[in-house]
């Protein structure tokens, strides 16, 4: 099917264009906890996707309601995207049954992305559970960018991580040597990363991922603190804790929210959340006004 451009009514002027196209399943990887990574051939989505973008996928022809899926990686030259998801409900169970060669309708890329600032090159990326994919996408963005970024990726999960744990060869002064498990892909990219869990996985920090981030931030010098920015995606309690962490250390923070979505393009306003704006509290749609927001505007005392 030829990709068809559609306008998101009322969306931000700088959002760019989103497309409807048939995504072909290229490969399927399965992991414990009913987790899957799908690579989909979707050239338009791949070309225009940015860290924080998502696709609205039709899981099966018998199921009209779509599901939002964060993009974990995108390669515009080769025309593919990757999505990581965990089965929650019948829709994603039908999605997980797809096999290489199958096609499904996608709308995307959708959403206001993360916006790193060059004056704050020390980037702390915090991902929890299904909030891990945007952090991987953002990390790859930093890797491929010509500017001098210094990312640290911290990920937490209470079910097995959707990758084989690898012992990192790099140790850090701020971290005990026993906390040494890492994501192989990020290790291959030479991007520092560590894992946290209450499930006592080997080599993972025993605790919340935000506790691990706090330990890192506590050890920054004042001049480093002034060059740091936090980016996060995950469950709402984790995002609230991350926003509190940012306030504590007086560091700007961007969060990607997770909300139920019906249309995914701003028409139904079913995903609206309360956000503090210069003109006072306002309802903003997570799908097109977000999903990325300034943490201080979302988790503020109104």
What does this molecule look like?
The model is unreliable at 1-15 (pLDDT under 50). This protein has helices spanning 43-48, 90-96, 132-144, 184-188, 209-218, 222-225, 236-249, 295-298; strands at residues 4-6, 18-31, 35-41, 54-60, 63-75, 80-86, 103-110, 122-128, 150-156, 166-167, 181-182, 193-197, 205-206, 228-233, 253-256, 272-277, 280-285, 292-294. The strands form four sheets. Strands 13-12-9-8-14-15-18 form a seven-stranded mixed β-sheet, with helices on both faces. Helix content is 21%, strand content 36%. With 302 residues, the protein is of the alpha/beta class. Helix 5 packs parallel to helix 7 (236-249).
Compute the gyration radius: what is it?
A: 19 Å
Percent helix among the residues? 10-25%
Strand order, sheet with most strands: 13-12-9-8-14-15-18
- What is the count of distinct domains? 2
Number of helices: 8
Q: Hey, roughly how much beta strand do the residues contain?
A: 35-45%
Find the structural class using helix and strand composition: alpha/beta
Q: Give the overall silhouette.
A: globular
What is the string of helix and strand elements? EEEHEEEHEEHEEEHEEHHEHEEEEH
CATH superfamily annotation of the largest domain: Nucleotide-binding domain of ferredoxin-NADP reductase (FNR) module
CATH topology of the largest domain: Rossmann fold
Instruction: Please tell me the overall pLDDT.
Output: 90
Under CATH at level 1, the class of the largest domain stands as Alpha Beta
CATH architecture assignment of the largest domain: 3-Layer(aba) Sandwich
Low-confidence stretches: 1-15
